[in-house]
Amino acid sequence: MIDEFVGRNKDQVAKVTYSKATAPELVGKIKAQQSANRVDIGLVLTGVDGLAAGIEQGLWLPLLPTYASRLTGMDDYLPGAAAMQRLAGDVGVTVTYYPSGPLIEYLPAKVPAPPTSAAELLDYAKANPGAVQYARPANSGPAARS
Question: Degrees (nearest 5) of the Cα angle 41, 43, 46?
């Protein structure tokens, strides 16, 4: 999504650099950067764990209402997404919501006809060993891939 935006808006964005961290690492990393007055992270995509930890530490800048006009569609959230947005307050924006699964994610270029039932998914998994994965409940989150 981000790379696609950059590709369509080269006049506004020269490049995007990514870094990854777990939620606990993320909060520590940003807190250290803020303390050193050397923040090099401009956007954080995280789950409720990283959001909550950052709120607790006072790390996040307010997005709303300042940027509300640029964050369209928030008035159209379904009830679950609206509840998630209330948890984020004015420092986060819900960009994806799912009611705790199961959620299947796939790459359309690699799986042009995705399974539409549990039986089809099982058949697909048998026909494509190693192509389907499921997250451990301890880590939670969607993990099906192809």
Answer: 110
For residue 73, the 8-state DSSP code is T
The length of the chain is 146
Per-residue pLDDT of the chain (146 residues; tens, 9 = 90+): 788 989 999 999 998 998 888 888 999 999 999 999 999 888 898 888 889 899 999 999 999 999 999 988 888 888 888 888 998 899 999 886 555 556 678 889 989 999 988 899 999 999 999 888 876 555 454 443 33
* In the block, residue with structure tokens 């990854």: 20
The CA-based dihedral angle spanning residues 23, 43, 142, 82, taken in that order and rounded to the nearest 10 degrees:
100
Residue 90 tokens read as 């004015």
- E-strand ranges in 32-97 read none
Q: CB neighbours of 62 closer than 8 A, spacing ≥ 6?
A: 90, 91
End-to-end CA distance of the chain, in Å? 18
Task: Determine the residue type at 140.
Answer: S
Count of CB atoms within 10 A of residue 4's CB? 8
User: Distance between CA 54 and CA 41 in Å, rounded?
Assistant: 14
